[in-house]
């Protein structure tokens, strides 16, 4: 009897030790260690292939995006590129003037006119241009026949490949003083018009050109977001009696909401950039009072006159304001429950 009780006690002790060592998991096995628990050396060794693959891209970003930021030091100098044939040496030997360039900018009334025109163009494009790709994507997504959808998307996307010279030429041939509409009106006894040289509607004209050229690009982004929506959701909503508009409001638009928030944050960060080439090509037709924006102001008053310190100071102001706008817009996106450009 004593011989039979000893193994039983040993088995019980072994079972208790095993239970003490083994965590309470459904499979009874020890869970794998989390990746975050690995040391830095082990993680570098594990991901060395991916790191080597990204090194060329990182080097290009550092070379062309971050190293030129060091050149903003000329905004605090009276930079003279002719001091030396080496631009770096010329930057070191140029005299320091502190915030004199910024003072010149803030005291220039043309700068504030350019800021006003830039903000007006931004709000017009935000209200009139930003919703257009969303509406077009919803319209194309509702088309049942795949061939019709493909042709419609191709037609909308085609102007994105046109240069601004071609886009403005097309508008000139339609809305200009010698355009098709003006000639047709004159042939029927009416007075013609020239919208391309009217400063009053220039901002609306620029917005219309942007819609025609780039709306197709935005349609692709929103259609890609709609492609991730499961058709089962639409079928279940239809079986519950939801009509087309209710399915769009409760299924389609919530699926687009994260993409809309992300693009809106990026668009707000790009508020001070409203199209340099597009406006520069039309500036002489309507005058600087209606067409001068920050980018063209920097070009005419800084780069063109070789006043590089003045141009660098204006560009630095624009960059700092753009960063502040991105951070503010991203904070608003977080308050609305969206991720934005980055998580909290």
Spans of at least 5 consecutive residues whose pLDDT stays below 50 are 1-28
Radius of gyration: 31 Å
Largest sheet: none
Decide which structural class fits the backbone.
mainly alpha
Order of helices and strands: HHHHHHHHHHHHHHHHH
Tell me what you see in this structure.
- The chain is mostly helical.
- It has helices at 2-21, 40-46, 48-66, 87-93, 100-106, 109-129, 131-141, 146-157, 164-175, 180-187, 202-227, 231-239, 244-269, 276-286, 288-291, 294-303, 308-335.
Blueprint (SSEs and pairs):
Elements: H1 2-21, H2 40-46, H3 48-66, H4 87-93, H5 100-106, H6 109-129, H7 131-141, H8 146-157, H9 164-175, H10 180-187, H11 202-227, H12 231-239, H13 244-269, H14 276-286, H15 288-291, H16 294-303, H17 308-335
Helix pairs in contact: 5-17, 6-11, 7-11, 8-11, 11-13, 13-17, 16-17
In short:
This protein has 344 residues and is mainly α. The protein is built from 17 helices and no strands.
């Amino acid at each position: 009897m004593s011989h039979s009780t000893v193994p039983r006690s040993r088995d019980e002790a072994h079972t208790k030790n095993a239970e003490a060592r083994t965590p309470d998991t459904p499979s009874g096995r020890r869970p794998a260690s989390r990746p975050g628990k690995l040391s830095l050396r082990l993680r570098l060794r594990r991901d060395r292939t991916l790191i080597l693959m990204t090194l060329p891209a990182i080097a290009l970003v550092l070379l062309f995006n971050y190293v030129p930021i060091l050149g903003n030091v000329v905004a605090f100098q009276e930079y003279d590129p002719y001091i030396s044939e080496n631009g770096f040496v010329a930057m070191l030997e140029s005299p320091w003037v502190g915030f004199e360039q910024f003072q010149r900018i803030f005291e220039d009334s043309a700068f504030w006119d350019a800021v006003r025109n830039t903000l007006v163009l931004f709000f017009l494009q935000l209200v009139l241009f930003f919703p257009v790709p969303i509406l077009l994507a919803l319209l194309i997504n509702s088309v049942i026949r795949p061939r019709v959808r493909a042709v419609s998307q191709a037609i909308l996307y085609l102007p994105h490949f046109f240069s601004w010279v071609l886009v403005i030429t097309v508008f000139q041939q339609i809305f200009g003083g010698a355009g098709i509409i003006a000639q047709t009106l004159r042939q029927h006894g009416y007075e013609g018009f020239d919208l391309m040289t009217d400063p009053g509607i220039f901002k609306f004209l620029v917005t219309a050109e942007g819609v025609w050229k780039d709306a197709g690009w935005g349609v692709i982004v929103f259609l890609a977001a709609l492609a991730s929506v499961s058709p089962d959701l639409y079928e279940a909503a239809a079986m519950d009696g939801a009509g087309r508009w209710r399915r769009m409001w409760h299924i389609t638009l919530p699926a687009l909401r994260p993409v809309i928030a992300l693009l809106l944050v990026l668009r707000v960060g790009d508020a001070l950039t409203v199209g340099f080439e597009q406006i520069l090509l039309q500036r002489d037709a309507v005058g600087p009072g209606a067409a001068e924006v920050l980018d063209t102001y920097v070009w005419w008053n800084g780069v063109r006159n070789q006043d590089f310190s003045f141009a660098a100071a204006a560009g630095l102001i624009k960059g700092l304001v753009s960063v502040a706008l991105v951070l503010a817009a991203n904070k608003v996106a977080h308050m609305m429950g969206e991720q934005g450009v980055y998580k909290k």
